[in-house]
Structure formats: structure tokens, C-alpha cells
Amino acid sequence: MVPNDEIKARERFLQEAAHLLAVSSPTAAAFIGRAHHKFIEDAEIEIPSKEADAYRRSICNACGNIMIPGWSCKVSNHLPGEGPTRKDNKGFKKLPQLEKSIRYTCLMCHRETVQALRHKARRKNKKSAPVLDAAPVPTSNNPAKEVDNAPKTLNASSKQRQKARKGGLQAMLDKKKSQNSASGGLDLMDFAM
């Protein structure tokens, strides 16, 4: 019996080789993809459902073609109610179809792979606890004055910061001018008219 690590390594090698050759040699990639699919079946490797869906989208189960949308396969949406029709006594009648699905059509063997789209679980809105009627808070004139003073202090502090910033910039300009005049050399701006 072959150890589990060797089986996984061989499976991974076949998968990567098929994907590597998908564009440069589609026929060789399809052959390796088919060998990969057969190896998975023979070794009875269990694939988690999420990975199985991705596997079904990436490799055609019939011919092993690596399905690249627009290159080696065609992708189309299939909505409920667009199913095949059958003729009844009353005329044409659509067969019911329950879920939205996506169809992957292999362009090498024209086999269709249909995958149903899973519906997302709807989120339930949690209603907030009802607000209890609170007794009105007694108001007095003093808190109102404090509220009025708060915006003034905010504006005052922002004005002070602005003055300090302007003062800092002005000081930097003055310092640069004094350095230029102290150096006594000519600058490019001296020749500008």
C-alpha cells in the first residue's frame, strides 16, 4: 500500500502539471487532467465539498480539459424557470427548476457541468431593546452657559493653533532670508526679472 503522503504528492503533481500545460498544450493538459481525475477515483481520495466544487469548475470530468472561462470553456447563468420545456395537452409547459445555477460548457468535448448556486443565509435583523421612557432631566441656566462656552474654547484653541502655525512658518521664512543675506552669494532668483 502506498503511503498517504505519496498519494497526495502524486495528485498534486498531476494537477499542477495539467494547469501548467493548459495554455501551451491543451491536448497534453487534457490527457494529464484525465489521468488526474482517474487517479483520484482509483486512490479513493476524499475531497471536501468546497474543494470538490472548485475541482468540478476547473477540470472537465469527461475529457480532462482544464476549463478556463473564455479560453477552453463557456460559462452561462441558468435562472429558475429557464429549464427545458415539454409539450402537454395545453401547449408548452416548463419543467420546474428550483435554484439558480451556472453552466460550464467544455469547448473540447461540449460536456456541460452544472453547479447550483448556494443561497446565502439571510441575516435576521435584531431589534434593539425598547427604550424606556426616562424622566425628564431638570435643566438649569448654568449647564446651558457651559455648553455655550465649550464651542468658544474650541474655536479659541483652534485659532491659537493657527496663529502658532503661521508664526512658525513666518519664523522659518525669516530664518531662510537671513541665511541667504548672510551668505552674500548670488542666487538664481537674483537674476530673475
TrEMBL record:
Transmembrane segments: none
Annotated region described as Disordered, given as residue ranges: 119-193
GO biological-process terms attached to the record: tRNA processing
GO cellular component: nucleolar ribonuclease P complex
Coiled-coil portions: none
Organism superkingdom: Eukaryota
Pfam families in UniProt: Rpr2
Classification via InterPro entries: Rpr2/Snm1/Rpp21
PANTHER family assigned to the protein according to its UniProt record, in alphabetical order: RIBONUCLEASE MRP PROTEIN SUBUNIT SNM1, RIBONUCLEASE P SUBUNIT P21
Record-given protein name: Uncharacterized protein
UniProt source species: Cochliobolus sativus
